[in-house]
Amino acid sequence: MVGFYRIAGDGLRLRLKVKPQARRNAIDGIVPDAEGEALAVSVTAAPEDGKANAAVAALLAQAWKLPASSFSVVQGATARRKLLRLAGDSVVLAAVIEAWRSASA
Q1: pTM
Q2: Which residues contact 71 (CB under 8 A, 6 or more apart)?
């Protein structure tokens, strides 16, 4: 099974399954996906004018203590299934995510 993130030359690629207009902003955990795993994320923002995408970036940035500006949508800007780019040192970013995974388990 492939994890929800992979190392890329300029950082990481994150596979997400987003639920907009949810009751609360939350990282719901890791769920099975057609390509392996995806990170399930719920945000209260509506899926219009990029509001939900911005809310996803803000939520992940807060959870992982990273700048929201390091997140950008690579694929699926208007879809629930998204591929996000997380810019930065891939080794450091992977360590941050793995530490979060361990703390969340």
Answers
A1: 0.94
A2: 56, 57, 60, 61, 84, 85, 86, 87
